Amino acid sequence: MSQYSAAFQCINPHCGAIYPLNRIIYNCEKCGSLLEVAHDLEPLKQLDAKAWMRLFENRYKSSQWPYGSGVWGKKEWILPGIDNANVVSLYEGGTNLFWAERFGKILGLDDLWIKLCGNTHSGSFKDLGMTVLVSQVKQMISEGAPIRAVACASTGDTSAALAVYCAAAGIQSVVLLPKDRISIAQLVQPIANGALVLSLDTDFDGCMQVVREIAEDETIYLANSMNSLRVEGQKTVGIEIVQQLEWEVPDVIIIPGGNLGNVSALGKGLLMMRELGLIHRLPRIVVAQAERANPLYRSYQKGFATFEPIQAGKTLASAIQIGNPVSVEKAIRILKQFDGIVEQASEEELSNAAALADKTGMFACPHTGVALAALIKLVDAGRIKKSERVVVISTAHGLKFIESKIRYHEERLGFPSAYANKPVELPPKVDAVREVVARALERQPSQNTAPGPFP
């Protein structure tokens, strides 16, 4: 039995009710608030900060099961009581922290980094949380829980992660998707991994309403981010960023925001690091929203005095096309603690930002485009200083969104594509090829300026 322990705790400071992690529960039974996983920190404090750093470094990407995972290498901080035999891991985490040298220099930043969370098994950061949730489900089933399936509403990435982890665990997954609102790549992932895929003629918020009702049946376990087990895995992204920066805290972290579970997770991991002495200051957190799905931005403009759900409009950043985010209360609480900023990006801004990033060596998803557009706007406004170390969290792999990239470069998105790069059709003649190549090289920009398209 581990000396470390954790439990569900109500986030309402006036309530604070406690529930065991093997309870099938999503909201506090006393006041109805969301829950979070709370750790008993006193035993964790018996190990000093340098000892935790050494332990995490020794495990990182090792072959020792399950500690080579970027999540389970920090097991004592995540789910300390779970049996290793019930851990369902695909060695998630450990993703590249990419030094975006060229993109940064275009903006005048010398210290810009992109955390490539899409370079993982199902192609998004959702793997970090799903390994924890599905592992806990497997543990609960081994203890006699009546769970027969795990279900989620999704805009694409959550369904992909749930399906692949359930497939690895031998547990049935059920995913509810908004019809015709996710990419083909995102749709095929749960289909391929054996999920029961239900395409509903509604948006994400409508799917969320349905899945919450069907999960009232205890045989169907809810996997959306209102289930705080997901947050426990996702909080490792902030911890891992600091670890990859040799235990130095960046000045600013920018993260796309939709349902906002990832925002609260990022803050939670960093607060735990500070509580246990691994860091002594906090970064500023910036949440980037699509202009067509921006309820948090609207609330921020009013100093978070009120929050009003909206009907989200269609956006290329489909995974954050959410008008009524479940985790808004947690996210606002984190932003207040981290001197937070919320910025928005139009469809043109996010598309051009992603395309410019691609021309400097990335392959950015539209949601990363939202974060990069927010970065550009905040640097231009002087709200992010050019001397600061900035990390942008890239939430998914660009290969999931090739349709939008094709439409961008074919200039079929309804606005100017500043960096469109169309193929040049030529006869199979050496002179014709030489002429076009020579003309393109004459127009080649300097290394630290925004590259333009070929002719």
How are the SSEs placed, and which strands pair?
Layout: E1 6-10, E2 18-19, E3 35-39, H1 41-44, H2 49-59, H3 75-78, E4 97-99, H4 101-107, E5 112-116, H5 126-142, E6 149-153, H6 157-169, E7 172-178, H7 184-192, E8 196-200, H8 204-214, E9 220-222, H9 229-234, H10 236-244, E10 252-256, H11 261-275, E11 284-290, H12 295-301, H13 328-337, E12 341-345, H14 347-358, H15 366-380, E13 390-394, H16 402-409, H17 430-442
Parallel strand pairs: 5-13, 6-7, 6-9, 7-8, 10-11, 10-13, 11-12
Antiparallel strand pairs: 1-2, 1-3, 4-5
Helix pairs in contact: 5-6, 6-7, 10-11, 11-13, 14-15
How would you describe this structure in keywords?
455 residues, alpha/beta, Rossmann fold, six-stranded mixed sheet, four-stranded parallel sheet
Structure description:
With 455 residues, this protein is an alpha/beta fold. The chain has a domain at 97-123 and 231-406: Rossmann fold, CATH 3.40.50. 38% of the residues lie in helices and 14% in strands. The protein has helices at 41-44, 49-59, 75-78, 101-107, 126-142, 157-169, 184-192, 204-214, 229-234, 236-244, 261-275, 295-301, 328-337, 347-358, 366-380, 402-409, 430-442, and strands spanning 6-10, 18-19, 35-39, 97-99, 112-116, 149-153, 172-178, 196-200, 220-222, 252-256, 284-290, 341-345, 390-394. Helix 10 crosses helix 11 (261-275) and helix 11 crosses helix 13. The protein is globular. The mean pLDDT is 94.
